[in-house]
Amino acid sequence: MNPKYMIIVKEIKEQLTNGQLVAGSKLPSVRQLAETFSCSKNTVLKAYSELEKAHLIYAIPQSGFYIVNDFKRPDNQPDVIDFLSAGPDKQLLPYMDFQHCLNQAIDTYKEELFTYSDQQGLPSLRTEIVKNLQHSQVFTEPERVVIVSGSQQAIHLLTALPFPNGKKNILIEQPTYFGMIESLELNEVTTFGINLSMDGIDLARLEYLFKTSDIKFFYVIPRFHNPLGHSYTNREKKRIIELANQYDVYIVEDDFLGELERDTKADPFFAFDPSGRVIYIQSFSKVFLPGLRIAGVILPNIMMKSFLRYKFSSDFNSPVLSQGALDIYLKSGMYHSHLKKIKEVYFHKIQLLKHACEQFLPQGTHYTKPDTGFYLSIYLPHHLSAKKLALLLSEQQVLVDDTNRMFLDDFNKDNLIRLCISQVPENQIQSGIEKIAQTIKEMDNKKSFRII
User: Fold this and answer.
1) Which keywords fit this entry according to its UniProt record (predicted)?
2) Backbone angles phi, psi at 316, to 5 degrees
3) Pick from 162, 276, 381, 440: CA 20 to 30 A from residue 76's CA?
4) DSSP characters for 326-386?
């Protein structure tokens, strides 16, 4: 026989399912429900607590309990194994904690919500970001931080922005984040690429490009690279900074997964030249809440005025409510508790993924071996097409990225697929790799699937 509180939980879930309760509906008070079910108030509170844990309801102090969202019946579609989506694990989103911060932000920043706030970002949030970055060996001042609407906005603005070195062209790793390539194409910027593997880049080739190609800045993903999972060593970072100083090239460091770093001795590029040669971007989209659309960018003082002018043409200031809620969340210490949890989850998932690749991938394929992060990539035999593999896998409800959008035209060889583990349940990882391996074998046995 179910405990009384579970009977209450079941009843509310049924009302959600049949549409009696919808998003925003206020639930009966604790006293009303206790009378309805002839139970104690503690029993009702326990039922509401269970529903809160399931993210079905939320509490507003001195007001009551409310429905979070419409409830959907699970459909009968086969389970999708999603190695494609790159947002945070939905089971790790700190909804309830951040809900409290949003409520407090509405009260704390109510005046700013109805006026134009500081274009550079809320001063209190910039101060908290500076404190938070110290854990990543990034030491700077709030005056050098600009709050932007996600790292993509920072990338897009920097791509178009004139730099103090007066140069015009941009260098990117190959492959790299597709959002960077999209901005380069939209802004019609002459772009050079340099091959990246898990062994790093050819530093002699880098020096040649710095010396001869009028490079404004070199865009790098320093840790847990998208799509490879590669991380630079401290020695490589120091050498790249030396070359950047020698040839007057800026470094744009997109450290969007830097907070997943487990090696306490691994530092960002910024740590080796904090004077202004390195422009550092920290996003909260991948390790926290993608819909928050908040990132911080550290700029040299000489670039601040022009960057803010370009940002003004895009949006006068980033959303104040999001800024205020993040400010409160960082101050409370909840952010670091969240990070500690997700670091362990993603590390464990990557280990499971590497083990499955080692066990099941057929001869002739190779895979990258990141320590942690979101991404691992598989190199197919050169005669097989990543596009065709991705299409065949999608028909089996296995989603992967064929990485075509992550290459410049001169570099794309169509033999790389990217796997992202952030939204794949642990119990699907092995079966997903087994399906990928089997499909590769089937393609290899059929001449019609080979690249001619």
Assistant:
1) Aminotransferase, DNA-binding, Pyridoxal phosphate, Transcription, Transcription regulation, Transferase
2) -60, -45
3) 440
4) HHHHHHHTHHHHHHHHHHHHHHHHHHHHHHHHHHHPPTT-EE---SSSSEEEEEPPTTB-H
Residue 250 phi, psi (nearest 5):
-90, 155
Cα 284 to Cα 63, 281, 303, distances in angstroms: 31, 10, 23
CATH code for the domain in which residue 31 is found: 1.10.10.10
Q: Which of 189, 178, 158 is nearest to 300 (CA)?
A: 158
In sequence order, what E strands does 6-100 have? 57-60, 64-67, 81-82
Tokens of 65: 């309990």
Does residue 243 share a domain with residue 127?
A: yes
How many domains does the structure of the chain reveal? 3
Is position 152 within any domain?
Answer: yes
Q: Tens digit of pLDDT for each residue in 20-72?
A: 787 778 889 999 889 888 899 999 999 988 888 777 887 877 788 888 766 55
Interval 73-125: pLDDT, tens: 445 455 899 999 887 777 777 777 888 888 888 888 776 666 667 889 999 99
Order of strands, sheet of 416-420, starting from the edge strand that comes earlier in the sequence: 366-367, 375-379, 416-420
Give the helix/strand (H/E) hosting 32: helix 30-36
Indicate if 60 and 45 belong to the same structural domain: yes
Q: Does any domain span residue 90?
A: no
Output the six-digit token pair for 110: 């109510």
Cα gap 231→280, rounded to integer Å: 16
Residues in the chain: 452
Scanning 231-360, the segments in alpha helix (DSSP H) are 234-246, 301-314, 320-332, 334-360
Domain assignment of residue 222, given as a range: 111-333
Question: The domain spanning residue 167 has which CATH number?
Answer: 3.40.640.10
Pairing of strands 366-367, 57-60: unpaired
- Its sign, for the CA torsion 16, 18, 23, 29, is negative
Burial class from Cβ neighbours inside 10 Å (0-12, 13-18, 19+) for residue 91 reads exposed
CA distance 368 to 120: 39
